[in-house]
Automatic annotation (TrEMBL):
Record's protein name: Gamma-aminobutyraldehyde dehydrogenase
Keywords: Oxidoreductase
PANTHER family found in the cross-reference section: ALDEHYDE DEHYDROGENASE-RELATED
Keyword Oxidoreductase: yes
Pfam family, one: Aldedh
Catalytic residues as annotated in Swiss-Prot or TrEMBL: E259
Domain Aldehyde dehydrogenase: 26-484
Family the UniProt entry places it in: Belongs to the aldehyde dehydrogenase family.
Molecular function terms, GO-annotated: aminobutyraldehyde dehydrogenase (NAD+) activity
InterPro entries noted in UniProt: Ald_DH/histidinol_DH, Ald_DH_C, Ald_DH_CS_CYS, Ald_DH_CS_GLU, Ald_DH_N, Aldehyde_DH_dom
Record organism: Streptomyces rimosus subsp. rimosus
């Protein structure tokens, strides 16, 4: 099902997509897309300059009136065709996603691509269900109506861990609601965002509705957020950069949507199904080589199960197959880059002074040494306030800590700045019910960890940001609510005028 193609040839004209066509960036600086499994540069392109951002915003602004004025049915038809074209391109999209990210092909082909196609199909349907509250007479003399209107040009910024899905999450609800978009993918992973935009054009979505600027964060990203022609900034990435985006958006009084970092707890109560918890923890920690904002990163295990859980996780991690991302048998690919691998190794190396590295904690030797690989890593004995428990590592590293009472387990789960996702493992519905109420996170799974759905919202609490991706809730982000009030009396002198004219009414 995977379809290889020549990336250099496909994007020979450049990695900017403006008003329905590819073009070169004008910054004068070259950026390479690197295959992290081999270190080979697979594509080079010129980054977007601030002038390229201006041109993209201009294209989106020109496309806005007609797209916002299209009926929901017309936008829905276009999105249905978009879903179909994306489905037809599935093999190429999976190839490009694995090439630029080093993702195992089974993850790209079974998760990233079908998830994005399903998102397009969901928003094709949802486009026809934009709702306001009921119209009516909330005073006897007036009829009130709610209009839910698009906002304008949306400036979206995405990270490198799931480039295609992040493009889908940012773009689809925005255009379904009648906005137009300038999307800035992470500069190291532009390929599937460009293919996503090409598919939109092929599906008949008008030129300018979706534009891509492949540029550096500090230059193109900041310029996009600050741009007076951009009505809203929608950002997914780290909490540190999210704060910077929020500062710029605030200073230009823009709406914003921030999907930021995570440090998801995985709470195992002493009546949990141990086998399920062990498998769930390893899969939840290692998906996408741990470069997942909802990855299971901190497992809290109630004392009676602690030793068996640690042993089970160590044994299972040892069976995970690292290898060529394009080998269907590969479970774990390289990290996105050598820089990211060294960052992850830094966290683990510093932890050796205060914790125990039970398994992993090293770069694999032999053939894999040339790629940005890192062994699945299990750490125990770390204190709750230590760096590996509190900071987002974004690599294949799971930290396990014991707890005694249910109160303690839940308190520890809540004890980081983040609040994106969490899971609770128990056979007792009252324990899991309590955990779902008391854990402060945008998603709490019960006896599972990771699955997502187009119909359900994804978004953070606390330092993980605010706003929702996917689901009908994302329309709240990409629409503004207008109150329209009709006078029903037809009189020149309204009752309330007395407050101004007194006796003279
Ligand atoms: P990052 O914050 O470094 O970069 C994200 C994007 O912001 C990139 O496109 C980058 O070029 C751009 N950027 C960098 N500096 C900028 C600036 N000053 N102004 C404007 N834009 C700028 O994040 P990353 O390393 O690409 O991705 C990993 C992070 O993303 C992790 O923290 C992860 O948790 C987070 N993430 C969150 C979610 C979520 O839904 N909450 C989903 C995926 C990833």
């Amino acid at each position: 099902m995977i379809q290889r193609f020549d990336v250099r040839d496909r994007f020979a004209e450049g990695a900017q997509y403006l008003a329905g066509g590819l073009r070169d960036g004008s910054s004068g600086r070259t950026q390479y897309v690197v295959d992290a499994a081999t270190g080979e540069q697979v594509y080079g392109y010129r980054l977007a300059s601030t002038a390229d951002v201006d041109a993209a915003v201009d294209a989106a602004a020109r496309a806005f009136p007609a797209w916002a004025g299209a009926t929901p049915g017309e936008r829905s038809d276009a999105l249905h065709r978009f879903a179909t074209v994306l489905g037809e391109r599935a093999g190429e999209l999976a190839y490009a996603e694995s090439l630029q990210c080093g993702k195992p092909i089974k993850l790209s082909a079974e998760f990233d691509v079908p998830g994005s196609v399903d998102n397009a199909a969901f928003f094709a349907g949802a486009a026809r269900h934009l709702e306001g509250r009921s119209a009516g007479e909330y005073s006897p003399d007036h009829t009130s109506v709610i209009r839910r209107e698009p906002i304008g040009v949306i400036g979206s910024i995405a990270p490198w861990n799931y480039p295609l899905q992040m493009a889908a999450w940012k773009v689809l609800p925005a255009i379904a609601a009648g906005n137009t978009v300038v999307l800035k993918p992470a500069e190291i992973t532009p390929l599937t965002s460009l293919m996503f935009a090409q598919a939109a054009t092929e599906a008949g979505i008008p030129d300018g509705v979706l534009n891509i600027v492949s540029g550096a964060g500090r230059e193109a990203g900041e310029h996009l957020v600050a741009h007076p022609g951009v009505a809203m900034a929608s950002f997914t990435g780290s909490t540190a950069v999210g704060k910077r985006v929020a500062e710029i958006a605030t200073s230009t009084v823009k709406r914003m949507h921030l999907e930021l970092g995570g440090k998801a707890p995985f709470v195992v109560f002493d009546d949990a199904d141990l086998e399920a918890a062990v498998h769930g923890a390893v899969a939840g920690a290692l998906i996408n080589t741990g470069q997942d904002c909802t990855a299971a990163t901190r497992a809290y295990v109630q004392r009676p199960l602690y030793d068996a859980f640690v042993g089970g996780v160590a044994d299972l991690m040892a069976t995970v197959r690292l290898g060529d991302p394009f080998d269907p048998a590969t479970d774990l690919g390289p990290l996105i880059s050598y820089t990211q691998r060294d960052r992850v190794a830094g966290f683990v190396d510093r932890a050796r002074s205060y914790a125990t590295v039970v398994t992993g904690g090293a770069v694999p030797q032999g053939e894999l040494a040339k790629g940005a690989y890192y062994l699945p890593t299990l750490i125990t004995g770390a204190a709750q306030d230590s760096e590996v428990v509190q900071s987002e590592i974004f690599g294949p590293v799971l930290v396990v800590l014991p707890f005694d009472s249910d109160d303690e387990g839940i308190a520890l789960a809540n004890d980081t700045p983040y609040g994106l996702a969490a899971s609770a493992w128990s056979r007792d519905v009252y324990r899991t019910g309590r955990a779902t109420r008391e854990i402060k996170a945008g998603c709490v799974w019960v006896n599972d960890h990771i699955p997502i759905l187009s119909e359900m919202p994804h978004g953070g609490y606390k330092a993980s940001g605010f706003g929702k991706d996917m689901s009908a809730y994302s329309f709240e982000e990409y629409t503004q609510v207008k109150h329209v009030m009709f006078d029903n009396t037809g009189t020149a002198r309204k009752d309330w005028h007395r407050t101004v004219f007194g006796d003279r009414t």
